[in-house]
From TrEMBL:
<dbReference type="GO" id="GO:0003755">
    <property type="term" value="F:peptidyl-prolyl cis-trans isomerase activity"/>
</dbReference>
<protein>
    <submittedName>
        <fullName>PpiC-type peptidyl-prolyl cis-trans isomerase</fullName>
    </submittedName>
</protein>
<feature type="signal peptide">
    <location>
        <begin position="1"/>
        <end position="27"/>
    </location>
</feature>
<keyword id="KW-0413">Isomerase</keyword>
<dbReference type="Pfam" id="PF13624">
    <property type="entry name" value="SurA_N_3"/>
</dbReference>
<dbReference type="InterPro" id="IPR027304">
    <property type="entry name" value="Trigger_fact/SurA_dom_sf"/>
</dbReference>
<feature type="compositionally biased region" description="Low complexity">
    <location>
        <begin position="29"/>
        <end position="46"/>
    </location>
</feature>
<keyword id="KW-0732">Signal</keyword>
<dbReference type="InterPro" id="IPR046357">
    <property type="entry name" value="PPIase_dom_sf"/>
</dbReference>
<feature type="compositionally biased region" description="Low complexity">
    <location>
        <begin position="54"/>
        <end position="63"/>
    </location>
</feature>
<dbReference type="InterPro" id="IPR023058">
    <property type="entry name" value="PPIase_PpiC_CS"/>
</dbReference>
<feature type="region of interest" description="Disordered">
    <location>
        <begin position="29"/>
        <end position="63"/>
    </location>
</feature>
<feature type="domain" description="PpiC">
    <location>
        <begin position="207"/>
        <end position="308"/>
    </location>
</feature>
<keyword id="KW-0697">Rotamase</keyword>
<dbReference type="InterPro" id="IPR000297">
    <property type="entry name" value="PPIase_PpiC"/>
</dbReference>
<dbReference type="InterPro" id="IPR050245">
    <property type="entry name" value="PrsA_foldase"/>
</dbReference>
<dbReference type="Pfam" id="PF00639">
    <property type="entry name" value="Rotamase"/>
</dbReference>
Length: 355
């Protein structure tokens, strides 16, 4: 079945993920920390859409790239790698060569995100400070205590002011992308039909499946030929009882050695290649209501009863049209955004330092 999960939207996925914290955790950026002033001078509040400064920790870290004069630091890169690996559930630390590749990819994404943020900062967002405050508050509520939040941030070498800064950037970037790319993408009926036809077998075919129950007389790997013979004889005796009229679920509860015995042997619905070959072959040959003979597998001896069957069938275009439209709109927006970032790169001054 077709799912939007199969497509990661570059704008808010690969691009922003590297620069922003994940939406489920800290998906945040921005609200710059107050600038330190000499004693006696109050810290000036940053204008809502003014590009944010680097967090204090990042300011102390050496710059690896300057994007139109704005530094991307080694700490920025390392933090982005940590976030990306955590999101993809990849164990850390990486081997040195893979770490180098990950840092290179992160730097590329950070550079693109910084260019886009600089452009997005030219557009004013009403009530941005209030939006930042609300988003930070939402993230605080995900933790039982302030100490837990601080500890989670520390794992990414971040502070609360850093969280506010990342929140600012996330809101500015996501708003800009939504207004300039996502909402402008349109998809025709012809494009929807073509996508459906081109991907019919990949996304829109419901595979053949069966619903079945079974009774298992199990054997283990250490079973001797004599043990297997006794197990088979028991299964054959159970089959005779079923053929004589005993109720399948009740007998499964009493006699089956499979954990499914507690559900009367019910295995639910399954498709091809989900069971061992001998079991699959026997189950898919049966019609609903039919029962197999004794089937031997590496697990022992089974008696299978099929309770339902779904033939392979294609989903109707109308039932998936809305999902396809959403997918294609995001795909178009992604392509437009990628082209726009390429344009920004050509016009930008990008200087590599300390590489």
């Amino acid at each position: 079945m077709f799912s939007l999960k199969k497509m990661h939207f570059f704008a808010i996925g690969a691009l922003l993920t590297a620069m922003l914290l994940p939406a489920g955790s800290f998906a945040e950026e921005s609200a710059a920390p107050p600038e330190e002033k000499p004693a006696g001078q109050p810290a000036a509040k940053k204008a809502a859409n003014e590009p944010a400064e680097k967090p204090a920790a990042a300011q102390k870290s050496p710059a690896v790239v300057r994007v139109n004069g704005t530094p991307i630091t080694q700490l920025d890169v390392e933090r982005a790698v940590k976030v990306m690996l955590a999101q993809n559930k990849i164990d850390q630390p990486l081997p040195p060569e893979l770490q180098k590749q990950a840092e290179s990819a992160a730097l590329e994404q950070l550079t693109a995100a910084e260019l886009l943020y600089q452009e997005a900062s030219k557009s004013k967002i009403p009530d941005l400070d209030k939006m930042i405050e609300q988003k930070v508050s939402q993230n605080r509520q995900k933790f039982k205590t302030e100490a837990e939040l601080v500890e989670a941030l520390s794992a990414l070498e971040m502070t609360l002011p850093d969280l506010e800064e990342f929140t600012r950037k996330e809101i500015v970037l996501s708003t800009y992308i939504a207004e300039h790319f996502q909402t402008k993408a349109s998809v025709s009926d012809e494009e929807v039909k073509k996508f459906y036809d081109d991907n019919l077998n990949t996304y829109f075919k419901k595979p053949e499946s069966v619903k079945a129950s079974h009774i298992l007389v199990g054997t283990d790997e250490k079973a001797t030929p004599e043990d297997r013979k006794k197990a088979k004889e028991k299964a054959e005796a159970l089959l005779k009882r079923l053929q004589a009229g005993e109720e399948f679920a009740a007998l499964a509860k009493d006699e089956s050695t499979c954990p499914s015995a507690t559900q009367g042997g019910n295995l639910g619905e399954f498709g091809r290649e989900e069971m061992v070959p001998q079991f699959e072959e026997a189950a898919f040959k049966l019609k609903p209501g039919e029962m197999s003979g004794v089937v031997e597998t590496k697990f022992g001896y089974h008696i299978i009863k099929v309770t339902g069957k779904q033939e392979a069938a294609a989903e109707k275009l109308e039932s998936v049209k809305e999902t396809i439209v959403e997918f294609l709109k995001k795909q178009k927006a992604q392509q437009e955004l990628s082209s726009f970032i390429d344009k920004l790169k050509k016009e930008a001054k990008i200087e590599k330092v300390n590489m």
